[in-house]
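hey can u check if this looks right to u? its 401 residues, i copy pasted from the old doc so theres a chance i mangled smth
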Amino acid sequence: MIILTSVLTTGALTLTACGSRDDDKGSSDGGNTTVVIGVDAPLTGDLSALGLGIKNSADLAVKTANKEKTVDGVTFKLVAKDDQAQPSVGQANAQSFINDKEVLGVVGPLNSSVSQSMQKPFNDAKLVQVSPANTGTELTQGDDWKSGTKARPFATYFRTATTDAIQGAFAATYLFETAKVKDIYLIDDQKTYGAGLAASFKETFTKLGGKIVGTDHVNPEERDFNAVATKVKKSGAKAVYYGGEYPAAGPLSQQIKDAGANIPLMGGDGIYSADFIKLNKKAEGDLATSVGAPTEKLDTAKKFIADYKTAGYKEAFEAYGGGTYDATWSIIQAVKIAHEKNDNKVPSREQVLEAMAEVKFTGVTGDVSFDEYGDTTNTMMTAYQVESGAWKDKKSEAVKP
């Protein structure tokens, strides 16, 4: 395990009123030396609701650090780039961040498949990357993690979201033991996140004694899922588990119910968005899991929620707001540690990377630190269900890795 020694906290932070930013030039509130923190997320397109929540939450952390003068003599600036949820765009964005010598850390991306294209360039450049949303287990534990052989592929990669190995197991256990569902139709979108989540779910669900009565893959770019919906109806499944994201999950769920299968669809954090409900007129009863405990119920999140509201951002912080703030704050604290060790001079990227081993603080989501793989040590998961047109938390639990 990494030894975590420097205890830092975001407690008692305040923020003056400010507006939402629509450009990518970021935040700057005075100071002597500029340190840039990059943000990569889908700021346009189907997943922009989640991406803009990530951008805004990172912006809030940067503004707070500048107001509180967290690092003496340093002004943090946020530079956000739109990856459009496309790996090729994310890779280009990564190179752009690498080329900007003022960038000492990057927050993001949302999609595990995008992260796969960014990890090696960042690692080669010794540039810290902290994702608030990636859950693909292989990103931190290597491609052979399923066989029990874990190896960290890239030393620069960290995340404040837990893994699909944990999320999939939690979802399967919830459906089988709490919801008492024994027969599942399993569908995924064939992307890194969706396929990995579905595989993890299947492993635990069948181990518990559950039955997979049918499987399918869908193209998430399409919106006509009637053929799959018909198969689900004929299978006799009591629920559908979907590995993928809300733009496809919403229509899929509705079309399954329209086909006569009045059963819930369950997915992971990729469907836990208000937009899933907007896209699905028959979302009532559907389920999702998401990383962490409900932000609104955490004492550690009260300041974040109040400051986010005061800041006047046009978009909600969504599922990854708290984790994004903590991801950004972890980079800020690493810069602080490295800055102090470097005689209060701006540290190098490598020095910031070394300082990540000492990062430990109480953040929005609770205690924040990273293990030897770069994974968060916070393995709290929550199950949600759509009730009266809104997501309602049903069960929160810390899951053992």
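Confidence is low (pLDDT under 50) at residues 1-31.
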